[in-house]
Amino acid sequence: MSQSIDYGNLMHTAMRGLIKSVLQDVAERGLPGAHHFFITFDTTHPDAQLADWLSDRYPGEMTVVMQHWYENLLVGDDGFGVTLNFGDSPEPLYIPYDAIKTFVDPSVEFGLRFESPSDEDEEEQDGEITIAPDAVEEVEESEAKPDAEIVSLDSFRK
User: Kind and range of the H or E element at 85?
Assistant: First the structure.
């Protein structure tokens, strides 16, 4: 039996489940109202699938937008597939949930940020973990609402 409860990982699992539920609803019913998503993910994740030219252009992470044009949204247990338009060129992507770094819906000022242990190390100063900048800064300033509330799971980590 383990020595403690890993609340950080439990929260990450729950939040990724929330993303899966939202995407499943969008796959079945479409995006309601003004909702749209900015999803930043790790392009080097071993299960991420994207065109070579996209991984060359975005060698570490990439932010995609699901708003006006997307097709073939297929939501699975471990990730989702979607075809997005890149400069009038439709490209299929597969994004594992555990490759997602941020998930933002600026239309309702909602955002999630997933920190990896290496991210914590980079943000550690004088033995304390600092709060990461808002995930919304990844979004173009014209699209983001400045007061978006980001749920950070850092406080649950040991």
Answer: strand 79-85
How far is it, in rounded angstroms, from Cα 94 to Cα 135?
Answer: 21
- Residues 136 and 148: their CA atoms lie apart, in Å, by 7
**pLDDT tens-digit map of 68-87:** 888 999 999 999 999 998 88
Which residue has 């649950």 as its token pair?
156
Beta strands 90-96 and 79-85, pairing class: antiparallel
What is the pairing mode between strands 79-85 and 70-75? antiparallel
Residue-wise pLDDT for 105-151, tens only, equals: 998 989 999 876 555 444 443 333 233 334 444 444 434 444 444 55
Q: Tokens at residue 137, please?
A: 């800064």
